[in-house]
């Protein structure tokens, strides 16, 4: 008994050490990013490297803003990512609900068709999509970036899998209580799916926040650039603006933290428990 | 409140040529304010019938009418029917208060204050007034059951449907809820259709019982009717616990002879005239230990219930059961003989299984007469 608890304690100790090493490894680049954003570029490659943040952040930011109008790009990124995430959540959850809980003709083939589109690489779709956007005159618009990917196959798949866990009797009960089919979706299915929706929203937001290739093709006007496109501007043939890049990236990660922290509260375990007696 | 008329109901499941008929040629009238119990083995179509009444299943053919109003093609939410599900189906993200208020919020334009008042009335009626702010997962099984009932009651529907609502409760709570449900139903006086596989529950609760088998309605009647006068062998064997002893007997004249040396001469031989064989049924409670009785058998097991004993025995290759007094404890292997009264005997057609003879004799004996007889 005694040795067992001692062994357990040792295991726990070892596990914590291991986890802390991982945490440090993850945090080092982030910390370096913050340090680098606050020092002049001349000190970038000094040896030993600087570990104390400097006072240059505001100067670096000013240079960045003059160089590429970073705040405008941030605004573009926020509008695109937030509206994309919201729209995609609605579409994916609706489609997932239909695939999980309704019977209709060609349901299975349609679902596998949607899954199959997951294997198409983005490079394959870029040219046809670009031509389409040119035809309908949507180049350099938010819509052109948001709409083509809004019905996200991965999101539909995730929502379908999770919504299958909603007991049929729960929906039938609501039907008998007088709910319309749409009310089933937003009064019963959505609230019970909050954890999945939160997880999916992080995935969707990150995807769009980091998207580079497709926005690069569709958005040619620098006024419409998202953050990844603006950052690319800082890597010139003659010179790389490391100080400005570091300021920009340190700012660019903040919305991701915000999204993570807001969504975290919805990761409630077992939200469906207690609804039906097994 | 409503009278429910079900006419020629048929429900098939499956497609691509493989049809399963769940309910076939089903005709039944559930009277206004009646508590009717559907009972039968699993897969007999009782739940499907209930779901057709609810509007959760489309019928293949036939009609369902509430008070003469054809609801066959109406959706569940248009029928003014409330249902309690076997697994309660409470909305997990809502408090008890919101769960119970949900139907009212959807179907009426009452103000929040009015709805709150009704929710509290219903909760008090069910004894869950103190639980209103809790979530379903914080409740016990019995409390969840009451919330589910509350959600059904609050709408004051025309029809209550209950799909094995007590089957998830432990035995003690189940019998308590059984009584509460009956009281509640008679108080509210709402037409109720109740599904169970438990014949004891059916007998105890129903004003009338509808016995189903293989998607077909076998018999509708009061507990006493289905017990005493089953229309066929299935109803006789399904109703009653322990179940009726059944075996085939050869007929010669008015004498019936069966396995293991069974022999009995009928006083009224006209019932078996012209038949070569007949199915016989004797209920365990009608068997009595009797020297020289018609049923010779060998004891296999005696189960002691305290107030009585169940005696399991073999008559030839037939297993028979008898309810005997608790003082009788014959050992395994003892040869015993049972007798019975002809008035308690059931006879069924060998081919059609239809009843030829069921229990006869008085049923509703007046108290004074009964007292007079026994004292």
UniProtKB/TrEMBL annotation, chain A:
GO terms for cellular component: plasma membrane. The keyword Nucleotide-binding does not apply. It comes from the Archaea. It is a multi-pass membrane protein. One of its GO terms (biological process) is transmembrane transport. The chain crosses the membrane at residues 16-39, 78-99, 111-136, 142-159, 184-206, 245-268. The keyword Cytoplasm does not apply. CDD domains: TM_PBP2. Keywords: Cell membrane, Membrane, Transmembrane, Transmembrane helix, Transport. Residues 74-263 form the ABC transmembrane type-1 domain. Pfam families: BPD_transp_1 (PF00528). It is found in: Cell membrane. Its main location: membrane. PANTHER family: ABC TRANSPORTER PERMEASE PROTEIN MG189-RELATED-RELATED, ARABINOOLIGOSACCHARIDES TRANSPORT SYSTEM PERMEASE PROTEIN ARAQ. Belongs to the binding-protein-dependent transport system permease family. This is Binding-protein-dependent transport systems inner membrane component. It comes from Candidatus Halobonum tyrrellensis G22.
Automatic annotation (TrEMBL), chain B:
Keywords: ATP-binding, Cell membrane, Membrane, Nucleotide-binding, Translocase, Transport. It is an enzyme of class 7 (translocase). GO terms for biological process: carbohydrate transport. InterPro entries: AAA+_ATPase, ABC_transporter-like_ATP-bd, ABC_transporter-like_CS, ABC_transpr_MalK-like, ABC_transpr_MalK/UgpC-like, Mo/tungstate-bd_C_term_dom, NA-bd_OB-fold, P-loop_NTPase. One of its GO terms (molecular function) is ATP binding. It is found in: Cell membrane. Residues 1-239 form the ABC transporter domain. The keyword Membrane applies. It holds the Pfam family TOBE_2. GO terms for cellular component: ATP-binding cassette (ABC) transporter complex, substrate-binding subunit-containing. Part of the ABC transporter complex XacGHIJK involved in the uptake of xylose and arabinose. Responsible for energy coupling to the transport system. This is ABC-type D-xylose/L-arabinose transporter. It comes from Candidatus Halobonum tyrrellensis G22.
């Amino acid at each position: 008994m005694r040795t067992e608890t001692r062994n357990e304690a040792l295991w726990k100790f070892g596990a914590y050490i291991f986890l802390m090493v991982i945490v440090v490894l993850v945090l080092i680049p982030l910390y370096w990013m913050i340090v680098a954003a606050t020092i002049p570029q001349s000190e970038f490659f000094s040896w030993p490297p600087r570990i104390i943040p400097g006072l240059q952040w505001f100067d670096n930011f000013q240079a960045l803003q003059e160089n590429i109008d970073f705040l405008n790009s941030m605004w573009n990124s926020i509008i695109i990512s937030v509206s994309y995430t919201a729209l995609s959540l609605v579409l994916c959850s609706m489609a997932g609900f239909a695939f999980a809980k309704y019977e209709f003709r060609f349901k299975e083939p349609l679902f596998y068709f949607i899954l199959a589109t997951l294997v198409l690489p983005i490079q394959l779709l870029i040219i046809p999509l670009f031509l389409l956007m040119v035809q309908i005159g949507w180049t350099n618009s938010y819509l052109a970036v948001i709409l083509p990917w809004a019905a996200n196959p991965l999101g539909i798949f995730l929502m379908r899998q999770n919504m299958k866990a909603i007991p049929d009797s729960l929906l039938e009960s609501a039907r008998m209580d007088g709910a319309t089919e749409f009310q089933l979706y937003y009064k019963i299915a959505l609230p019970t799916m909050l954890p999945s929706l939160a997880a999916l929203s992080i995935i969707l937001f990150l995807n769009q926040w980091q998207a580079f290739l497709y926005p690069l093709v569709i958005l040619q006007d620098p006024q419409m650039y998202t953050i990844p496109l603006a950052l690319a501007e800082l890597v010139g043939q003659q010179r790389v603006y490391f100080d400005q890049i570091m300021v920009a990236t340190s700012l660019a990660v903040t919305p991701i933290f915000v999204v993570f922290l807001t969504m975290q509260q919805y990761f409630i375990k077992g939200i469906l428990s207690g609804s039906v007696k097994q | 409140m409503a009278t429910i008329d079900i006419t020629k109901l048929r429900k098939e499941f499956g497609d691509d040529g493989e049809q399963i008929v769940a309910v076939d040629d089903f005709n039944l009238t559930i009277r206004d304010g009646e508590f009717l119990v559907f009972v039968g083995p699993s897969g007999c179509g009782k739940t499907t019938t209930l779901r057709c009444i609810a509007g959760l299943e489309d019928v293949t053919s036939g009609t369902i009418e509430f008070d003469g109003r054809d609801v066959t093609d109406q959706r569940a939410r248009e029928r003014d029917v409330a249902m309690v599900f076997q697994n309660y189906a409470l909305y997990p993200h809502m408090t008890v208060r919101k769960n119970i208020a949900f139907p009212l919020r959807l179907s009426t334009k009452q103000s929040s204050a009015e709805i709150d008042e009704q929710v509290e009335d219903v909760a008090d009626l069910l004894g869950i007034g103190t639980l209103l702010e809790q979530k379903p997962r914080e409740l016990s099984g019995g409390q969840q059951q009451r919330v589910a009932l509350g959600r059904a009651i609050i709408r004051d529907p025309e029809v209550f449907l209950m799909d094995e609502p007590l089957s998830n409760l432990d035995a003690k709570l189940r019998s308590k809820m059984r009584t509460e449900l009956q009281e509640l139903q008679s108080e509210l006086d709402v037409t109720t259709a109740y599904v169970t596989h438990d014949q004891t529950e059916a007998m105890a609760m129903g004003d009338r019982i509808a016995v189903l088998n293989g998607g077909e309605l076998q018999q509708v009647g009061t507990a006493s009717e289905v017990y005493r006068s089953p229309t066929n062998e299935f109803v006789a064997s399904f109703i009653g616990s322990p179940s009726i002893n059944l075996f085939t007997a050869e007929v010669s004249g008015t004498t019936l002879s069966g396995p293991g040396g069974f022999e009995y001469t009928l006083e009224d031989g006209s019932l078996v005239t012209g038949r070569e064989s007949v199915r016989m049924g004797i209920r365990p409670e009608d068997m009595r230990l009797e020297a020289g009785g018609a049923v010779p058998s060998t004891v296999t097991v005696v189960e002691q219930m305290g107030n009585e004993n169940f005696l399991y025995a073999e008559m030839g290759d037939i297993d028979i059961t008898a309810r005997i007094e608790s003082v009788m404890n014959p050992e395994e292997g003892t040869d015993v003989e049972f007798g019975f009264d002809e008035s308690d005997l059931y006879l069924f057609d060998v081919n059609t299984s239809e009843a030829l003879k069921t229990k006869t004799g008085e049923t509703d004996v007046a108290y004074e007469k009964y007292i007079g007889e026994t004292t």
